[in-house]
């Protein structure tokens, strides 16, 4: 039976509104391939309205005492906690991320993040004092940018919405969120829940196509800062589109992360770390930090391949709303075509298939319309293959053998990306050398994919720059007083 259609609206100036011209986009449940919701297909008029609302609200919000903003952010955290199950189910239905992740991990984590942001408001108003001479005092003050545009991806909408909106609001900015059209229902539902919590215009949410609503927002001179989590290609497009206004940019972009297993590692922990904690995840490897290049030292090569094969074989691909499911579908038809295209590329390039490669109804016969790709592993000795160099964003990994530390480092850094890396070893000296020498924004040692509030998260090279934190949403002003 087809799912009933839910209609969602934008949040602009404290009001829930359809797109100005009434257009909508379908939201498709990736587990079934069926339309389950409709979202506004916003355009330039909606972007203009959101910017106007955010600019009108900014003076009052930024002038509010920091502790007053903190109290409202704690109320937002309460909304997350009170509506966790509903929001988790919406996100799972919208993008296929399994319910045990959205309900047990994402929502509790984001409730905590909003509480953390509320505690960070004092940092946003702190400055430094410098005695310049007996009669001269210098000091700095931190000020919000103004209107912050947060552009968020489809793989984890609630989490990235929170990371951008919570810290930007704590710093005294007003915010416009542009979610990805493939999966934004959970964020639009949040807009409904928060409409009466925050003052009108302080938070605005506008859905629509990137080339329409997104482009209009990026180019708008009333937007003072842009923070994007998305692809490298999107980051490049935003850089070009925003260049005339010289907007400050924060980009958390793509990755092709190495996950390096040394012979002295705890192989049980490493096997979990390179599979279910990395690339065979609840949302089918659609993770920017996915360790999709598994580097294995030759003495433990065969043993690790066997362990990885056994773990992948034990995964359950089924309805993502079932708490027993351990991996969900690919988010959309377009992304499914991209991932399956890389399976063809791997075969043509000569990579050796270890397991997987199955797609569609053959993976989950009970849900034949879904966008299913089985966990897949290839092996190669050639890191120059496209499947080793390009971000696939699906449950597809390539294992590469190495002999020495120097070889592992060279393979790891032989990438245009630099978002994250994993190192599995009992050698403390080696761990510190790799932390130092890996060209990566984050290095995990004997763990993977831990991103706690309080530590920066961002990349180098084509993986972007900057990170979401309260001070990143402020700018410093210097003052000198001569008495």
TrEMBL record:
Active site: 252
Pfam families given in the database record: Aldedh
Domain of life of the source: Bacteria
Domain Aldehyde dehydrogenase: 20-471
Gene3D superfamilies xref list: Aldehyde Dehydrogenase, Chain A, domain 1, Aldehyde Dehydrogenase, Chain A, domain 2
Family: Belongs to the aldehyde dehydrogenase family.
Name of the protein in its database record: Aldehyde dehydrogenase
Organism of derivation: Sphaerisporangium flaviroseum
């Amino acid at each position: 039976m087809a799912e009933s259609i839910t209609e969602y609206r934008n949040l602009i100036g404290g009001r829930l509104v359809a797109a100005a011209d009434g257009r909508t986009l379908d939201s498709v449940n990736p587990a079934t391939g069926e339309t389950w919701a409709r979202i506004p297909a916003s355009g330039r008029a909606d972007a203009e309205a959101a910017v106007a609302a955010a600019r009108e609200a900014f003076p009052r919000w930024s002038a509010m005492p920091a502790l007053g903003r903190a109290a409202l952010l704690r109320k937002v955290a309460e909304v997350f906690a009170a509506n966790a199950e509903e929001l988790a189910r919406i996100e799972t239905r919208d993008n296929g991320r399994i319910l045990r992740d959205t309900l047990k991990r994402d929502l509790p984590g984001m409730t905590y993040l909003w509480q953390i942001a509320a505690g960070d408001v004092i940092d946003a108003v702190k400055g430094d004092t410098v005695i310049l001479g007996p009669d001269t005092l210098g000091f700095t003050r931190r000020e919000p940018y103004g209107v912050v545009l947060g552009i968020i991806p489809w793989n984890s909408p609630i989490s990235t919405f929170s990371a951008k909106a919570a810290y930007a609001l704590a710093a005294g900015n007003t915010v416009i969120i542009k979610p990805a059209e493939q999966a934004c229902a959970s964020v639009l539902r949040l807009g409904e829940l928060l409409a009466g919590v925050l003052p009108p215009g302080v938070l605005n949410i506008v859905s629509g196509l990137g080339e329409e609503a997104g482009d209009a927002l990026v180019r708008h001179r009333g937007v003072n800062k842009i923070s994007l989590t998305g692809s490298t290609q999107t980051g490049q497009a935003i850089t070009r589109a925003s260049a005339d206004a010289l907007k400050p940019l924060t980009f958390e972009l793509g990755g092709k992360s190495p996950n390096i297993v040394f012979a002295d590692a705890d192989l049980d922990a490493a096997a979990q770390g390179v599979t279910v904690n990395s690339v065979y995840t609840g949302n089918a490897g659609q993770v920017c930090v996915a360790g999709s290049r598994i580097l294995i030292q030759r003495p433990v090569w065969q043993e690790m391949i066997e362990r990885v094969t056994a773990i992948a074989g034990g995964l359950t691909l089924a309805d993502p709303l079932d708490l027993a499911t351990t991996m969900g579908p690919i988010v959309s038809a377009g992304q499914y075509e991209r991932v399956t295209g890389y399976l063809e590329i791997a075969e043509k390039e000569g990579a050796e298939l270890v397991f997987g490669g199955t797609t569609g109804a053959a993976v989950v016969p009970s849900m034949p319309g879904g966008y299913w790709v089985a966990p897949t592993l290839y092996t190669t000795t050639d890191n120059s293959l496209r499947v080793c160099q390009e971000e696939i964003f699906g449950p597809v990994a390539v294992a590469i053998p190495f002999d020495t530390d120097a070889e592992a480092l060279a393979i790891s850094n032989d990438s245009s990306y630099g978002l994250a890396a994993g190192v599995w070893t009992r050698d403390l000296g080696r761990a510190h050398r790799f932390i130092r020498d890996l060209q990566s924004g984050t290095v995990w040692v004997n763990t993977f994919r831990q991103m706690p509030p309080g530590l920066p998260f961002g990349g180098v090279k084509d993986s972007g720059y900057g990170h979401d934190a309260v001070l990143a949403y402020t700018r410093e002003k210097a003052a000198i007083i001569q008495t």
